[in-house]
Automatic annotation (TrEMBL):
One of its GO terms (biological process) is small molecule metabolic process. It comes from Saliterribacillus persicus. This is 2-keto-4-pentenoate hydratase/2-oxohepta-3-ene-1,7-dioic acid hydratase in catechol pathway. It holds the Pfam family FAA_hydrolase. It comes from the Bacteria. SUPFAM superfamilies: FAH. Keywords: Metal-binding. Residues 86-283 form the Fumarylacetoacetase-like C-terminal domain. Belongs to the FAH family. GO terms for molecular function: catalytic activity; metal ion binding.
Amino acid sequence: MKLATVYHEKTEKAAIVHEDSVFLIETLNEMENKSWATDIFSLIETNKVEEIENWYKTVGKKLLDRCVAVDKLKIKFAPLYRSPRKIWGVGLNYTEGKTDLKHISYQDPVSFMKPDTTIIGPNDAIHIPKASTNTTAEAELAIIIGKSCRDINEEQAKSVIAGYTTALDMTEADIHAENHRYLTRAKSFDTFFSFGPEMITPSSFENVDALTVKTVQNEKEVHQNKVENMRFNPFFIIAFHSKVMTLLPGDIILTGTPGATVIRDGDLIEAHITGFSPLINTVIQTN
């Protein structure tokens, strides 16, 4: 099942994406006499995503033909939500293939955090900071946590995922190059995290390892790799961070990128992942 947040009557509202149409949760509530929350963050917090998915699979698909829909191509998508408690990122997480991992110089994930003030959504503009000549963008698969968890293992991690989504993570690379301890500052400028347009539930994927993640710049593929080539798989990443802190519904974990690309004023930057609609953002140089 695919969920999204769309602009409708000047408000950001949760919706199901079914084939080429979008169905507002508020419309489904009226049709089915339900009381589901009408924003995705609340749906995750109240543990209703699985209930909606069960409805969708057993009843909903057949009923949507008589439900008022919006053409997916005629609607503007927003970020999935705007106020997660935590945004974690993982760096340096892909190999070029099934290489010998004993040559890696670190044993744990290289992780960092981003503030929610970095959040933008599909088709919003990424603003390159003043005087920056080396801002980069990276396409990533993002995990959305669905259940509160602490100190879990990899197998348990599979059951706490609400969904996956596409993301673009930006970095002011000159700040990071000046001193690697400046990583958080380099990644925390406004507009430096885009995610959406869709959250897809885990049951929609037979094998997450088979997903391909691509960074596309000005309609040209610049980096690509498969999840199976991650040094630390998504379930390990969840379990690892849960041993540091309690993970909460709506927390977001970026799983790393196949590669970064320098972005310039006027660029179009995209994240493409198997099974998802592309996440596309424009780029503006701040004067």
